[in-house]
Amino acid sequence: MNPASAQSDLVEALARVASGDRAAFRILYERTAPKLMASVRRILRSDTGAEDAVQEAFVRVWRNAGDFDASIASPIAWMTTIARHVAIDAARRGAERVSAASAAIDTEMEERLAAPLAGADPLAAGRLAGCLDGLDADRRGMVVLAYCYGLSREELAARFARPVATVKTILRRSLAALKDCLGARD
Fold it and tell me: How far apart are CA 39 and CA 81, in angstroms?
């Protein structure tokens, strides 16, 4: 199938989807889902998140197919734009959840860290909490989740939407900063 024919087939499928044709929607999905998945996967870096975003994008395509205008964009460009917007929204919601999780971690951090340290040195928990406050919220959250709650680098990477190697570097640098901070206070 040549590209012009493929595009006109997608234009026709979108027109049929606008009138509620499920068979046309299936064709549209089969021909465009891999491309949308690839676009969304680059933004979200998670297969599960990308699958959810593509599903939401197709729901929006189903609802808004009547708004498609072939004189403005190609069908794949229009659908990719929808999918990218869904993915960006999902990424932002994920960042908000991480920030909310970091705030919750901050409130219980002193209690959690003070318990094992209280017997050895009553001031140690306060010093450590003060040094942790010197880290930005994401770094502090990663350190606490890793060393107090036992999350692996892979779990942290998924939770903070970062590559595992980046998480490893952040943890190493954060621990070095904590060591320097605690050493400077002695």
Answer: 9
Report the alpha-carbon distance of residue 18 to residue 80 in Å, rounded. 17
Q: Which fold has domain 119-185?
A: Arc Repressor Mutant, subunit A (1.10.10)
pTM: 0.53
pLDDT tens-digit map of 20-52: 999 999 999 999 999 999 999 888 877 888 898
Give the pair of three-digit tokens for residue 125.
């928990």
- Candidate CATH numbers 2.40.30.260, 3.20.20.80, 1.10.1740.10, 3.40.50.620; the one for domain 3-92: 1.10.1740.10
Largest CA distance in the chain: 75
For 19-163, where are the alpha helices, taking DSSP H only?
Answer: 22-44, 47-64, 75-118, 124-133, 137-147, 153-160
How far apart are alpha carbons 156 and 25 in whole angstroms?
A: 37
Give dist(CA 99, CA 148) in Å, integer.
18
